[in-house]
Amino acid sequence: MSTEAGIDVQHQLESLIQDFRTSDPPMPVIVLHAEDAADDDRVTELVDELSEGQQRHGTRTAVAPTEPQPGDLDPTARAARLLWDLGDSRKWGDRSAAYRPYSFPRLGLVRALQEATDDPDMREHWPAAPGGTPDGNVQREQAQTQLLRILARQRWRPRRPSRRNRQLLLNDVQQFLPMGVLGAFTALLTRPEWYIAVLAGIGLMVLLAGLNHVPGRAPLFLWLRRESRWFLTTTFLQSAARRQSTSVRLLRPVRSWRAIAARAYDVSEAMREGGEFPLQLYVLALFEDLRDNHRRASWDLRGFKRTRPPVLFLRRAARENGGIELIRAVSDVRSRRSELDPLLIVAGVAADDTALLDRGPAANPPANRPAPPSRLPQRLRHWYDEWAGNLRADQSPSRTNALPWVLRIPLPHGELDQLRQSDWRCVRARHRPPVARVVWSVHSVLLVLALVVTAGVVHARELDRTYCSAGLLTADRDTEKRPAPGGGTECVGIATGDVRFGAHLTGGTAGEGKRLRELESLVRAENGRVVRDHPDAYVTVVYAGPLSSASADPSLVKGAEELAGVYLAQRVVNENYTVKLRVLLANGGSDMGHQKVTAEAIAAYADRDPTVVGVVGFGRDLQSSPDVTRRLLEAGLPIVSGTNSATYLPKDFSNWFSLAAPDEHQARALGLIARQLRTQRGKAAHALVLARDTKESQDRYTSEQALYGGEMLDREGFEPLPAQRYRVANGKPELRQHAESICRGEHVPSVIYFAGRVEDIGPLMTQLSTEPGCANRQISILTGDDLSKARFSGTGGRDGVAPRITLYHAALAELKEAASRTAFYEDASHYLPWLKDDRVTYDAAGFASGQTALSHDSTRALYWAASLGDVPQSRSATWVNLRNVKLDGMATGTIDFTGAPLYAERHGHSIVLNRVRRTAEGVSQAEVLCSRPAGSTKPLSVKECSIA
């Protein structure tokens, strides 16, 4: 600053600006004038220096054009012209100023109304008849229609150069951004791919933006803009209203539009009449916009970032250029509104024009007022403190003749003398960046967005890796992806949403995979009909089985056959009974390796769905079977298994019901065969148990079979050889060394009890048939029910036995004897699409193993208990009712749980003893030695099971 006065005034401005950082001090209109008229030009130069200094300090400054204006305008109209361009953010400094540019929507709306009012197309439409008359009312409606047409043509914005249109487009689109986000979020609720949600949000924004810019129409949601809400609710314009509604509601667009249209016409009429109203409305709109631009309680915390108030400079305020009228209007609006705004005005006034700032006769000054200090810096602070302290009283017309919001600063001649250049001083401004600017800025938002997006992507990928059906934010947590044997993953859990286990199969579209997908679709369709047509008359049964396979042994035979039986039972029930059956599918993984996870998912879902009454399946005995049964016991769910032959489960758990003959029962039945073999071989008959090594697997079935098979051989009097256990590596049994040990030992066994799985019998036969010690010997192999899944060459399958080796195995389903007393095969040909109208027999492919029949009978038994009396039962009632189940005419005979004791083995299971041997034609032929259908408790005898 080149003068002492400039240095002192700049100090005072900086002091006031620093107070603005922490509070909202009242901002005066600082009027600088010289004590001597000869120094008026120096005051103007001082105002220019102050403006340049504030720009360097980062203050948003605007300089009102005080040059003479063309045209014959009165001082009030000239004052309004000074404010026209202040609605352009470029007039308030460049982008180097703190935070983003100002926006002036309210000032722009007032200017748009002024331009529409002054439009030549509007002149002939103003009403000529007096108001309140019929002609006057008609003319008023026509004038309002024309005014709205002109405003729509202007987009309710002031006319601007074409290079500003892009910014206006962006400003209009901003209001549609939340709706685009809402559209994207709504799309996400359906769990689509992430790009579909993004396209949905962008598409909605583009559609709204296109409709918003239809030529000749008002913008969409005009009444929801902030300037429109201010326009309708400010009390300053109530005098112009004619008792019109000012209600603005999102869900009432017609009423809101009528309110803003009526208000626009009323204000336009008042502006057409002229006077001080247009000028004060411009001032009020400017103040409201600046107050909004510095609002602290805003989404972007802009009030905390803009720590310096805006400053408007009037280089030479005079009556001719409207400056004096502008100062008067500012003081009048502030006095009327009694609200603080951040605008600081610095004006230079000629010494002879200061009297124009008086508004009336002077009142008597208060007595005992202290004399002002002698030095200018102290006088400046004293004048400001006195002005701020008396502000409320000075607003009263009788208090003083000066305008209350004007702080006059007379500058003495000596303070305006230019200093030597070496004495010029720069008033420093404190530039401490606000915390909000650092924490809540574009860079921090971008950083947070980047972190959120990264976390979202990582979370989405984690969801996709963990769950079978996952979107960007959510996932179906009833199914999970778990490691599959041999590599890859498989989908396990209970399919309650849009999960399809068939869609996760790694195999092709042929064979059991195709059949499983077809069955899954059929069950889903039937469930949809049940829920849609009988919402209050159905029960839900969960089938839990192996609905996926390992890459090393991609077999889905068991899962596909069991699921066919469950679906068949569902169709029969829903076609013939009042209470309908809904079936949910649960996958325990390949060989039920993840059945514990599946049980947890079933129990969790049952807590949410009271229609779930029980579980069918879990047909494989594993180390986790006790935990699975216990977890479902805690959930109150009974289990009816068709093929799990565990002896210990019904003894340990009251919720376990099984149609499969227990392992101990099977071993006793095979003992009838062993007894006859012992008699044929004589006293020196040797036997051994060859079992799978289960140390590194979950299999428990083979251990149980080995235990009861060994006990049986001891009871039947065989000379026992040391038991052997073989390992399974990469899905294949390692039997070569065991075959050599068996066949080249001192004693070659005549009977081998094979406690293994069906997939291991082929390699065993191959090894025994090539070993010299066994190739020429008659050897009998006894084994459990897992061999019932084999398809021997005599029936078109690939499985077989070696020459001179006879295989005896148990099976769980006696189908031949029960076939004449059941409608199972007729129902199958009627309801299973691939068997439509075909004749089906008990020994047909897909039925001979008995797994379809057993799962069908299990489902029918559980349904009977859940629908007793043609009324849907609770799961606890179903559990109790199961001990009263007795169903005749089932696929395996009579299902009878009435004699099942608690914590003990029941009797009456279906059982078959088969013999498989090589024929003269070189094929392996299976035959039934003896059997019992389900429901029969008569034990088998040696005579019935004769091997002679």
UniProtKB/TrEMBL annotation:
<keyword id="KW-0472">Membrane</keyword>
<feature type="region of interest" description="Disordered">
    <location>
        <begin position="50"/>
        <end position="74"/>
    </location>
</feature>
<protein>
    <submittedName>
        <fullName>ABC transporter substrate-binding protein</fullName>
    </submittedName>
</protein>
<feature type="transmembrane region" description="Helical">
    <location>
        <begin position="168"/>
        <end position="188"/>
    </location>
</feature>
<feature type="region of interest" description="Disordered">
    <location>
        <begin position="357"/>
        <end position="376"/>
    </location>
</feature>
<feature type="transmembrane region" description="Helical">
    <location>
        <begin position="438"/>
        <end position="458"/>
    </location>
</feature>
<keyword id="KW-1133">Transmembrane helix</keyword>
<feature type="compositionally biased region" description="Pro residues">
    <location>
        <begin position="363"/>
        <end position="375"/>
    </location>
</feature>
<feature type="transmembrane region" description="Helical">
    <location>
        <begin position="194"/>
        <end position="214"/>
    </location>
</feature>
<keyword id="KW-0812">Transmembrane</keyword>
